[in-house]
Design goal:
The protein is mostly helical and 93 residues long. The chain has helices spanning 25-34, 39-45, 50-62, 64-81, and strands at 8-9, 17-18. The N and C termini lie far apart (44 Å).
Length: 93
């Protein structure tokens, strides 16, 4: 596991993420709150310190307006590109 405390930044893309990694604050929040994983499990699976997981969750709740914009932007991107996905039921052999 990483021993370096990572800051939350926006250097790689438009979403806040752990410095030097592509792991977003939104992803960490989803893993814990929507999927029910423990902070330790998320940290172990992504080779980050458990403190980074808590740092991301703190950031999520300290910046509710920003995170609402992030979530809205994600939803808009999904809707915009939905026509590019294939429903498994529509695939024929």
């Amino acid at each position: 596991m990483s021993q370096v405390a990572r800051q939350i930044v926006r250097e790689l893309h438009d979403e806040p993420h752990l410095e030097g990694r592509r792991i977003t604050v939104q992803f960490i929040k989803t893993q814990i709150e929507d999927r029910g994983l423990s902070p330790r499990t998320v940290a172990d699976r992504h080779d980050i310190d458990v403190a980074d997981v808590y740092r991301a969750l703190t950031y999520y709740y300290d910046h509710p307006e920003e995170m609402q914009v992030v979530e809205a932007d994600r939803e808009a991107a999904i809707e915009e590109h939905e026509h590019l996905t294939t429903d498994p039921d529509d695939v024929r052999d």
